[in-house]
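Hey, can you fold this?
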Amino acid sequence: MSTGQNNFLTFDPNLTNADSDVQYAAETAVQNGLSTGLASVLMHNKLFHQVTVMMKALANFVAAQGHDALDTSESALTAALTAAINPASGALAAIGASTKEQHLTSTNQTIVATFTPAANQNLLIGVSARIASATTVVSAEVDYTDAGGNAATQTFYTNVSMPVGSNPTLMILINANAAPVSVKVTAGTANNAYASASIVEV
């Protein structure tokens, strides 16, 4: 892959005339914003350096993916950054549905997140559970219709004994038809588990 053009530069790249990290953090203007009076050269050099070194890093990334990182067009730069982040489609992944900390108040299976894609779509599904006060058995699955029009279920875990605290997030990639996709979680103890889930279009 050829490297794209890049005209972004880091201001004072060697920090030869700038505040140290400790000095910068202690600057009154950093804490409260600028006011009238003489500006601090050292502080502003540190400020410009921090802003531009991040911009330079992003520009380097864009150029390394084969796209031009130039300051001549905001729209072209936005398109280049978007394409660099997701080279397959030139578009960012979209969140179809996301639920945080849904309280499982019963032992019945609960729909935590649901989403209906507009057409056949790859979806990345994630689910996690937090247990409040005592070890609880938890099950989680995603129900959907596959590309062939068949009802399908993928299981994250079945009757897993989960300790108190946050338990690992599990991810499943599916290809779903234009029909409801539902993440369902069941807790063995009522009012002791919280479920989070996301459905992301990829």
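Oh, and this one too while you're at it.
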Amino acid sequence: MANFELIVLGIYEDPQRRILLVQNPFGKLCLPGGTVRTLPNQQPQEEFEVETVERSSFEKTGLALDAIMPIALYSPDDQAKVIKVYLMVCEGSLPRSNWRTKKGYKPIYLRRKEILRQTNILFTDKAIIKYYLAKKRKNPAFTHTRLLVVETIAS
């Protein structure tokens, strides 16, 4: 099995239908998430993916969100990198005692039109958000049904 980097990102839409983004220390906007750490030639297990996206989201936003299901895979032209996207919800969970927020990150909520106008959102993350919004517009129940197959987003 070839080595690859797995990045897990979360999509959280608040009750006002705004998408949660993170402003990083350089002013760029991105979806919350992080890299899953594994041993060489070891495939990540979903429990590590879920823990990583929940912990990374908390570190960068201060929000304890729950990853409820994977909704998409995205593989940019770099075949050594795969991005897995999880749908996140806020169900009142408490963060683990060893989780800490990171300085320099700021949670930002944007509506669909604001996202489309932004020029400082990472290209990959903007493509993922557009995919999510299009899927939700076609089938509003898609966020409430467990996917049998995680869809792949074309780059």
